[in-house]
Design goal:
The protein is of the alpha/beta class and 370 residues long. The chain has two domains: 131 residues, Aspartate Aminotransferase, domain 1 (Alpha-Beta Complex); 211 residues, Type I PLP-dependent aspartate aminotransferase-like (Major domain) (Aspartate Aminotransferase, domain 2), CATH 3.40.640. The chain has twelve helices and twelve strands. The model has no long low-confidence stretch (mean pLDDT 94). InterPro entries: Aminotransferase_I/II_large, AspAT/PAT-like, NHTrfase_class1_PyrdxlP-BS, PyrdxlP-dep_Trfase, PyrdxlP-dep_Trfase_major.
Length: 370
C-alpha cells in the first residue's frame, strides 16, 4: 500500500456495484437488470427549471442549507405531515451526502449502529470511516423488520438505529406496527433513529409510513434522485431536531458546501410533478418480474423500491450464479455486496418491460440448468 494512504481506507473495499457497472460498459447490448436508478427521463418541466436557473445566472454557491424557496416548500410539506415543534430541514448533496453528514455528526469511535442485513452498501463503509461499530441484524429469509431482534441487539454502546424502508436491495417494506415498535424503542432508550426514505414514493401495496410519525426525534433522509430520475443532480434533504440539523450544516459547510444551485431550482419544480403514472408503471414491472420468476426462485415479494432479491438456485451460491448470468449477457448484482451471506442476488426492475421479459427468460433458463 502507498505510504500516504490513510489506514481508514483499508477497512472497506470499493463498491461491488461499480465493478458490475464497469463490466456492463464492456459488454455489447447486455440485458441490464443491475442499475438502481429509474429508466425514465427527468421530467421536462424539471429540466426546464434547471436550464432557466443556469441561464438566469443562478450558478453560484447557494446558502449551505439550500435555496430559500426549496427549503420553504420542503418545510411546509414536512410541517403539514408531522406537526412537530422541533423539526427543521436542509438541502444536502444527495441522500448519500445526508447519510455521511448524519454519521459524522452523531457517531463517535466505538459507537454501535444497528441495521438490517441485507443493507445498502454505503452503511458499513460510512460507519467505518467514522470509527463506528456495525451491528447488522440478520433478516433472512423474509427480510422483515423484527423489533424484538432490534431490541435484543441494543447495548449501552448503541448510538443509532438505521432503518431503510422500502429497502435496498430487497424492496421489502416494514409495516406500520414494526416501525412504531422500533421508533418507540429508540425514544425509550434515547437512541438516534435514522430513516433512509429515498424510496418512499415507490410504495405499491399500501400507504408509506415513516417512523417519524411515532418518534419526533427521528432524523429523516430523502431526496429527488430515485423519484424523479435525478440521480446525477445530487439534491437530497434531511429533516430532524434543530440542534442535530445545525451540526450537520456545520459539517456540510466544510465538506460539500452546498447542493448544486441549478439542480435545487429543478428540485423545487419537481415538487409539483405528479409521479403517479411512473409509480403505476413500476407496480406493473414488479408484478411482471415476480410472476415470471415465481415458479423457479425463492424471494419475498417487494412492497416498494424497484428491486427483487431472490435466492440463487442450486448450491453454488449467489456470486457463482451471477457470474454465469453475466457470461450469458445478463447483468445482475451479487447479494454478498449487500450482506454477510452469499446466497442471493439483486435484480433491478427499473428497466423496460422488454428487458425484464428477456431477463426473466434467461434467469429461468439458468435456474433449470442449476
Amino acid at each position: 500500500m502507498h505510504p500516504w494512504i490513510a489506514d481508514r481506507t483499508t477497512t472497506f473495499d470499493a463498491s461491488g456495484i461499480r465493478k458490475v457497472f464497469d463490466l456492463a460498459a464492456k459488454l455489447k447490448d447486455p440485458i441490464n437488470l443491475s442499475i438502481g436508478q429509474p429508466d425514465f427521463e427527468v421530467p421536462e418541466s424539471v429540466q426546464d427549471a434547471a436550464i432557466d436557473a443556469i441561464r438566469g445566472g443562478k450558478n453560484a454557491y447557494s446558502p449551505t442549507q439550500g435555496i430559500g424557496p426549496l427549503r420553504s416548500a420542503l418545510q411546509q410539506e414536512i410541517d403539514s405531515r408531522y406537526g412537530h415543534d422541533d423539526r427543521e430541514v436542509f438541502v444536502c448533496s444527495g441522500t448519500s451526502g445526508g447519510l455521511m453528514l448524519s454519521m459524522l455528526s452523531m457517531i463517535n469511535p466505538g459507537d454501535e449502529v444497528i441495521y438490517l442485513d441485507p443493507f445498502f452498501v454505503m452503511y458499513p463503509a460510512l460507519l467505518k470511516m467514522c470509527g463506528g461499530v456495525a451491528v447488522p441484524i440478520d433478516s433472512y429469509p423474509s427480510f422483515q423488520l423484527d423489533p424484538d431482534a432490534i431490541a435484543a441487539a441494543v447495548t449501552p454502546k448503541t448510538k443509532m438505529i438505521l432503518l431503510n424502508s422500502p429497502a435496498n436491495p430487497t424492496g421489502v417494506t416494514a409495516t406500520a406496527e414494526q416501525l412504531e415498535a422500533v421508533a418507540r424503542l429508540a425514544a425509550e432508550k434515547n437512541i438516534a433513529l435514522i430513516s433512509d426514505e429515498i424510496y418512499s414514493r415507490f410504495h405499491y401495496d399500501d400507504a408509506f409510513v415513516s417512523p417519524a410519525q411515532f418518534n419526533p426525534d427521528t432524523i429523516v433522509i430523502d431526496g429527488f434522485s430515485k423519484s424523479h430520475a435525478m440521480t446525477g443532480w445530487r439534491v437530497g434533504y434531511v429533516h430532524g431536531p434543530g440542534e442535530v440539523i445545525a451540526t450537520m450544516l456545520k459539517i456540510q459547510q466544510y465538506s460539500f458546501v452546498c447542493s448544486p444551485q441549478p439542480a435545487q431550482w429543478g428540485a423545487l419544480r419537481a415538487m409539483e410533478v405528479n409521479l403517479q403514472g411512473h409509480i403505476d408503471d413500476y407496480l406493473n414491472k414488479r408484478d411482471l418480474i415476480c410472476d415470471g420468476l415465481a415458479d423457479r426462485f425463492e424471494f419475498t415479494r417487494p412492497g416498494g423500491a424497484f428491486y427483487l432479491f431472490p435466492k440463487a438456485p442450486g448450491d453454488a451460491g449467489g456470486e457463482a450464479f451471477v457470474h454465469k448470468a453475466i457470461e450469458r449477457g445478463l447483468l445482475i448484482i451479487p447479494g454478498k455486496i449487500f450482506s454477510a451471506r452469499d446466497s442471493h442476488f439483486r435484480i433491478s426492475f427499473a428497466a423496460s418491460d422488454e428487458t425484464i421479459a428477456k431477463g426473466v427468460a434467461l434467469l429461468n433458463q439458468l435456474a433449470d440448468e442449476a
